[in-house]
Amino acid sequence: MEAIEVKDLRKVYGSTPAVAGVTFTVHAGEIFGIAGHNGAGKTTTVECLIGLRRPDGGSVRVLGEDPARRRRAVAQRIGVQLQESALPERMKVAEALRAYAAFYRAPADWRQVMERWGLGPLARQAYGDLSGGQKQRLMLALALVGDPEVVVLDELTTGLDPVARRETWRLVNDLRASGTTVVLVSHYFDETEALCDRLAILARGRVQATGTPAEIMAATGTGSLEEAYFALEGADR
C-alpha cells in the first residue's frame, strides 16, 4: 500500500483554482517533496492531505484513509509541522513535548524524543529564548512525539542560517533512516534536490513534473531542480 495517494485533487476559492487536478503517490519510507514557489498550490495540497480542508474534487488517501472524513483517525497516525507553527513564548521545551504527547493514544516516550533530537539540555528553556534552529528542532520533535508513520514538514528551514539549515537536513535524513515516510514541502529547490527521493513540482496549482531529481533534470535538460522548475513553468505558460 502506498503511504499517500492523491488523484486529480481540486480546490477552488471563489472563482480561483488553487489546486487544479494534482495527482501523485508517496511510497512508504521515502522522502517525497512537494516543491514550487509561493502560490504554486503547495499549502492547499498539504491542508487537504492532513484534513484541514475538504477537496472540491478528486481523492486523497493517507495510509488508506480519507483525511477529510476520518481526520481524527489520520491525525493519530501522522505528524505535522506547519509553516506558521508557534508556541507560547514562556512554554518550556519539556512542557511542550509532554503536552503534545497527551494528544495521542499511543505516543512515543516524549523524554526519549527530547533526547533523540538533542533537546535534553534545553528542557527547561522557554520557547521564546530558543534560537531559530532550536525552535525548528523542537517543532520537528513535536511532529514526531505521536510516533507517526508519516510526517509532513512544511517549509521546515525557512529563516534558518546555513548551519542550522544543514543540521535540519541531517535530522530529516535520520527520519527516513528510521523508516518514517516524510513529505517535505519547500520552495527551496536545492533542499528538495539534496533530500528527496522523489518529488512533484507544482506551478499554478498543477503538477509540472514528478520523479527523482535526476529524472526531472534529465527530462528538462537542466543542471539543477531550480533550472528545471523555470523550464517547466515557461513551457506551461
From TrEMBL:
GO molecular function annotations of the record = ATP binding
Query: Is Transmembrane helix included in the keywords of this UniProt record?
Result: no
Q: Which domain of life is it from?
A: Bacteria
CDD domains (UniProt xref): ABC_DR_subfamily_A (cd03230)
UniProt keyword annotations, A-Z: Antibiotic resistance, ATP-binding, Nucleotide-binding, Transport
Recorded hits in PROSITE patterns, A to Z, give: ABC_TRANSPORTER_1, ABC_TRANSPORTER_2
Stated membrane topology is: Peripheral membrane protein
Per the database record, which ranges form the ABC transporter domain? Answer: 4-229
Subcellular localization, as worded in the UniProt entry: Cell membrane
Q: What is this protein called?
A: ABC transporter ATP-binding protein
Which organism is the protein's source? Answer: Nonomuraea salmonea
The uppermost taxa in this organism's lineage are:
Bacteria, Bacillati, Actinomycetota, Actinomycetes, Streptosporangiales
